[in-house]
Design a protein that fits this description.
By secondary structure, the protein is of the alpha/beta class. The protein folds into 2 domains: 22-40 and 264-358, Aspartate Aminotransferase, domain 1; 60-260, Aspartate Aminotransferase, domain 2 (3-Layer(aba) Sandwich). It is built from 14 helices and 13 strands. The protein has helices at residues 6-9, 12-15, 42-52, 66-76, 89-100, 116-123, 141-150, 171-180, 192-195, 232-241, 249-260, 263-283, 307-316, 341-358, and strands at residues 29-30, 83-86, 106-111, 127-132, 153-159, 184-188, 209-214, 226-229, 289-291, 298-303, 319-320, 322-323, 333-337. A hairpin with a 6-residue loop joins β9 and β10 (298-303). α3 packs across α11, α7 packs parallel to α8 (171-180) and α12 runs parallel beside α14 (341-358). The longest helix has 21 residues, at 263-283. It is globular, with a radius of gyration of 21 Å. The model has no long low-confidence stretch (mean pLDDT 95).
Length: 360
């Protein structure tokens, strides 16, 4: 029987990592993962059902996702040569780091932001560097560029809107970074459909700009479809390291249907935006809360005195939100995804009950 010292074989940069924790608690109402609370429309499900009849599941999927790329290119008014499809946009983050960085290089991003930038970088032996966001959850381009130069950073990641703060950074500051950084600038627009602000139109003017998008937030989280838009040269390099069958037949087909039959999805998005306005307005009435503006399908709020206590209270009442208190800048902060009207009403009711109990 072998008894190998496995830990000694594992790379040191991997040994030092902690797994990305995804809360998967069995709660009746899940408002923690920034998903679309609505199921795909009957129209989209009917299209998928019809497509299944023609699937050759014994054959590999299209390695180039040609039909899906065409539908995206048409919707974005771009060319398929500027597109790459990923198993979620997380995969494209990994591929970009593989293409442009080698062990020991650094990447940079504002903080707090999407945790996977740092986690993926550390797993590849890279050095993640961050600069703190200001009190309005924004950054100064000159400072970011200065720190990037000092660390010889290869890539700057900007989440737009930013997760978990929910806001879009200053458009002028983002543009300054793109125009003055000598490396790659990744603008992660995973929540574009709720912000309706984009840098896709800038790509033809800036060959160092990469824009990421995701379909996970608008209804296809279970199928893991993301895509990147960039200069064709960047796309060609990504395809050198991308696994050839990284997007499966079902995901490609359903994503194509969503792109070409977007009206039902847009109605869901509009409902989410209306509910976002209503929810923020209602929570702003609570003196114990500080609610931050949002351009996304979620928003951040700070509670006094204890976010942990409120988090447990909501969970005990069948409502799961995201507790972010472990981050030093997000002490006593919770993040809530916009749910259906009924789910949101239940949340508001429990918030009122809690506030009355804590502040009779």
């Amino acid at each position: 029987m072998s008894n190998v010292d496995l830990m000694n074989l594992i790379q040191s940069n991997v040994r030092s990592l902690k797994p990305y924790h995804v809360e998967n608690i069995d709660c009746e109402i899940k408002l923690h993962a920034n998903e679309n609370p609505f199921s795909p429309s009957d129209e989209l499900l009917d299209l998928l059902t019809e497509s299944i009849k023609s699937f050759q599941l014994n054959r590999y999927p299209d390695p180039d996702s040609r039909n899906l790329k065409y539908s995206i290119a048409k919707r974005l008014n771009t060319d398929t040569s500027r597109l790459v499809i990923g198993n979620g946009s997380d995969e494209i983050i990994l591929l970009l780091l593989q293409v442009f960085c080698q062990e020991g290089d650094s990447i940079i991003f504002p903080d707090p932001t999407f945790a996977m930038y740092a986690i993926i970088a550390k797993g590849l032996g890279l050095k993640p560097v961050n600069i703190p966001l200001d009190d309005h959850w924004d950054f100064d381009a000159a400072e970011l560029l200065k720190v990037a130069e000092e660390n010889k950073s290869r890539i700057i990641f900007l989440s737009y809107p930013n997760n978990p703060t929910g806001n879009c950074f200053s458009e002028n500051e983002v543009r300054k970074v793109v125009e003055n950084f000598s490396g790659i600038v990744v603008v992660d627009e995973a929540y574009y459909d709720f912000a309706r602000k984009s840098f896709v139109g800038e790509i033809e003017k800036h060959n160092n700009l990469v824009v990421l998008r995701s379909l996970s937030k608008i209804g296809l989280a279970g199928l893991r479809v993301g895509f990147g838009v960039a200069d064709p040269l960047i796309i060609d390099q990504i395809n050198k390291v991308r696994l050839p069958y990284n997007s499966n037949t079902v995901s490609q087909t359903m994503a194509e249907h969503l792109m070409t039959h977007f009206d039902p999805v847009q109605k869901q998005i509009n409902s989410i935006l209306e509910e976002r306005t209503r929810l923020i307005g209602e929570l702003e009435k609570f003196d114990s809360l500080t609610v931050y503006p949002s351009d996304s399908n979620f928003f951040l709020f700070r509670t006094e005195p204890s976010a942990d206590k409120l988090f447990r209270y909501l969970m005990d009442n069948g409502i799961l939100v995201r507790n972010l208190s472990s981050h030093p800048r997000l002490n006593n902060c919770l993040r809530i995804t916009i749910g259906t009207r009924d789910e949101n009403n239940r949340f508001l009711s429990k918030m009122a009950d809690y506030t009355q109990t804590e502040n009779p």
